[in-house]
Amino acid sequence: MMMPDILPRPLARWTIASAVALGMAAAANVLLARKAERQRPPMGRFLHVNGEELHVVDRGEGKVLVLLHGNGSSVDDFAVSGLIERGARKHRVIAIDRPGFGHSPRPARGLMQPEEQADLIAATLSKLGVEHAVIFGHSWGTLVALALAQRHPDLVAALVLASGYYFPTPRPDVLPFSLPALPVAGDALCYTVWPLLSRFTWAPLMRQLFGPAPVSRKLSRCLKPLALRPKQLRATGQETAAMIPAAKRLSAEYGHIRAPVTIVAGEGDRIVSPEQARRLQAELRIASLHVVPDTGHMVHHSAPEEVFSWIERSMIHAAAA
Length: 321
What we know:
Helix content is 50%, strand content 15%. By secondary structure, the protein is an alpha/beta fold. The chain has one domain (36-320): Alpha/Beta hydrolase fold, catalytic domain (Rossmann fold). The model has no long low-confidence stretch (mean pLDDT 91).
């Protein structure tokens, strides 16, 4: 006796074809990720800290400046902007690929909240013999910098925060960009269709990040291959989903921060309203605010001289304290 077909034949053919296409897409994305890692080899060295592996760039000598990149980025951001080279002329500069980004592997347990990343970075700096440092954080990296100041106050000599999201607000844009954070389905997306979608949206995203200032084509070319790897797309989605709850937790403790804080924002930022920076200055009694006209979210690229001058000022004040 013959068994009836489980699925109608056209539907079965469509299902098989879709599965084959997704499998081929996954294989292609894995190969592209490996190619990207060969083309953009690590700039620094790897440290094993608290069960995690971090890619760390360590340049120069003297007082320590630590650079923490934003969501979806890597230490290449600071290399292209010139912050590593400029800082290393007078200081010791330590730039870290945060977990899941650049050449730092994705943690086995998935997302690390800003507080966990702060503890990991503090342990990394201790391993490098660093007792005091000025911390520069950009975008999502500002949350980690603030968590460092809250949880490790003796380590943080000063904070310089650029383009940060500091307080919870309604963000409709967060939901679609959080899809890669979904359990199981998120990994499936990141290994199949999400890299392709991200390639189509890359140029508009860069214009959104830099606008109203021109896009840095060098940074765009530099970041794109690593940013579109499945593991980094997954990490980006997870940090996007975690952003609002993290800002809510951390903002409750801003008043306890002892370190001096310099806040930088682009007046035309299309990702995070500069009102976030103004509100943070009002919350902190030891903060200075610099809102740069004609710049957007990537203010350290669009106005590198100004941003580095504020970093240098913080380095000088921290050394004198």
